[in-house]
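Progress against Task 2.4 (sequence-to-structure conversion) is shown through the following example record, which the project officer requested during the mid-term review.
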Amino acid sequence: MADPNKQPGPIGRLWRALKRPSQMSLLSLLIVGVVAGIVLWGGFNTAVEMTNKEAFCISCHEMKNNVYKEYAENTIHYTNRTGVRATCPDCHVPKEWGPKMLRKIQASREVWGKITGTIDTPEKFEEKRLTLAKREWARMKANDSLECRNCHDFKSMNSEAQKPRARKSHELAQKNNETCIDCHKGIAHHKPQGMEEEE
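Structure tokens generated for the chain above:
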């Protein structure tokens, strides 16, 4: 039989407080709720932004020894005359909140690939490269190369300063309503082996 004089422990006291009607005013509850919401939202947003850094991408995903190495070797997005660098998130993560969250969910497949061992070595990565590339190209085509257009926009281009071939290609692309990824596959990474020309 329980001792009626025994004081409840911390869990018992918490449970008792939760069961009894609150003496807090509605305003107090509202203030506590707002503060808790700000703290939770701030923490979530901070965590999302921490995962939106290049250092995070190349430490978690099987990128450091594969596509990151290619990107860092000799691409215009890594080293150029102006010193402006496009990092992994600049090209692969939308800036708008909704599309960014969707992209984060999609990118978790790569983490799953690491955990299950399907892309954890350079050889396994190469076997999956075409599939991974096609998935990313389809995503970029579907959003009209949104991340590319954050920096490159037909309206901002000075076509007179472009080489004749580039000028003609960009004019045709605008006329045919094409998007960046239609022509610029392999701009920062090697094209997959076995890729058909129309891919």
